[in-house]
Amino acid sequence: MEEHVENQVVSMPRIGDKAPEFKAVTTQGDINFPADYKGEWVILFSHPADFTPVCTSEFMTFASMQDKFEEVNTKLVGLSVDGLYSHIAWLRTIKEKIEYKGMKDVEVTFPLIEDISMNVAKKYGMIMANEATTKAVRAVFFIDPEGIIRAIIYYPLSLGRNFDELYRVIVALQAADEFSVATPADWRPGDDVIVPPAGSCGTAKDRMDGKEEMKCYDWFFCTKPLDEDKVWKAVKKK
Known about the structure:
This protein is α+β, with helices and mostly antiparallel strands. It has seven helices and twelve strands. 30% of the residues are buried.
């Protein structure tokens, strides 16, 4: 997919692509991405600007959920096209002054990338001309331990993200990898999973050797139970 930004054609990475590489200055020091995160899942996300209300609510939520993401081997990396000193001042304001939905004294300890040049934002297709030519949309990239983009979600400037969904996605991706299954609509740990690939249920049953219970709704749609404890044991850091 291509997006025209300031008369330039910016190529947007796709699911299955290697995450574009970059080096950057952040609020937590220099990073070399994605090499510094090899072996871990990463959520790389952009926000339009520091000192804006929707972004403030999002950063407080991400920071409050950071330990929860860490438990499932996932690092958070933020980005906007603001400068480092703006980032630092904004994060200090969040910690010292903002109380929202029971969250207060929130300290953001994950890195926030300085991207004044918009170099990183353009590599990831985060600048969309229909939204703004100088602000990154609310993009979310889920990147696996090998540096491959596994899922992408884009939100417009006016829409705050659903963080329960971001967490659900990272858990579902890891569960699908670990157990060689697919996850149905609204899947949560403990729900049945789909036996892939689509094919005859007889073939699927043969593959499972009768060791697991399976329900077939038709020849192309078979599910099996996957114990919730088994999921959490697989995805949570040892």
